[in-house]
Design brief:
This is histidine kinase. It is found in: Cell membrane; Membrane. The chain has 258 residues and is α+β, with helices and mostly antiparallel strands. The protein contains 5 helices and 9 strands; from the N terminus they run ββααβαββαββαββ. The longest helix has 37 residues. The chain is globular, with a radius of gyration of 22 Å. The two termini are 39 Å apart. Bound molecules: adenosine-5'-diphosphate. The site of adenosine-5'-diphosphate has 22 residues, from α4 and α5.
């Protein structure tokens, strides 16, 4: 593997030639691949025991475990929250490793956008209810079906919706709209939350990027939007954001109409 760089040779303001610098980056490339494989293996290995902790917790909860005082109940709740978080992180790392090795396996199907919307809204209902946030849906019956990888697309929408909930105040509203633009459908999630400082807007889809100091909730990994971008672009769609600090944000992505 070579990295190619071209430098102009300038004499008195005129370009008199070009120098091509080739750097052998084979070792770096291999190191990078090794790292990605390592991440994939580790996250995969972690997923099973974490899932089983989660199952045991669920069993404990269902059995109503006799006498548990409020302090113990709180501790169980904390374990449950942290386990959910760990599962999310390992899931994101696995997705990331998949993306980095160029192995985004797409599984296309045709579906009405309402199916994607309803599923995603259902998935974030719990966290939205906790903050008494209303999600207004505008996705008319008359829209055509889309051609998409349904799991990945739903994952993206859940991510945008949960970010909107995370970065909005209690009792606010989120608008989820699906519109047709020529041969594409645009899904958009608009919130009236804290918005994003214009200085950081162009970096929001970078891996591990989090707006400095912005987190009401500091538990994010900064990976969600980076993976969302890979998932949407792999399907031939576009993803973007408009935002005004202090007023809110609108994230949107497009998918092909059948
Ligand atoms: P995270 O796991 O940190 O939420 P994301 O990739 O989903 O990672 O988002 C990256 C960063 O973009 C977040 O840390 C946050 O600073 C900012 N962000 C994302 N969505 C919103 C939103 N709806 N409103 C304000 N800021 C947002």
């Amino acid at each position: 593997f070579f990295n190619k760089e071209t430098v102009d040779v300038v004499n008195d303001g005129t370009t008199i030639g070009k120098v091509i610098i080739l750097k052998n980056i084979t070792e770096f490339q291999q190191l990078d691949e090794a790292k990605t494989n390592f991440i994939a293996t580790i996250s995969h290995e972690l997923k099973t025991p974490i899932s089983s902790i989660k199952m045991s917790l669920k069993l404990l909860e269902d059995a109503r475990i006799g006498d548990v005082n409020s302090e113990q109940r709180q501790l169980l709740q904390n374990i449950d929250d942290d386990t959910r978080r760990l599962l999310q992180i390992t899931g994101e790392l696995l997705d990331l490793a998949q993306v980095e090795t160029g192995k985004i396996n797409l599984n296309f199907g045709n579906t009405h956008p309402q199916n994607i919307v309803n599923y995603a809204v259902q998935a974030v209902k719990f966290i939205a209810d906790q903050k008494q946030i209303t999600i207004k849906i505008n996705c008319p019956d008359s829209l055509p079906d889309v051609q998409a990888d349904l799991d990945k697309t739903t994952w993206v929408l859940i991510n945008l919706l949960s970010n909107a909930v995370k970065y909005s105040a209690s009792k606010s509203t989120i608008e989820l709209t699906v519109k047709r633009h020529k041969d594409m459908l645009e899904f958009s999630v608009k919130d009236y939350g804290q918005g994003i400082d214009a200085r950081y807007l162009s970096r929001i889809f970078e891996r591990y990027f989090k707006v400095p100091g912005a987190g009401l909730d500091k538990t994010g990994t900064g990976l969600g939007l980076a993976i969302a971008k890979d998932f949407i672009e792999a399907q031939g769609g576009k993803i973007g954001v408009e935002s005004q600090e202090g007023e809110g944000s609108r994230f949107f992505y497009t998918l092909k109409v059948v």
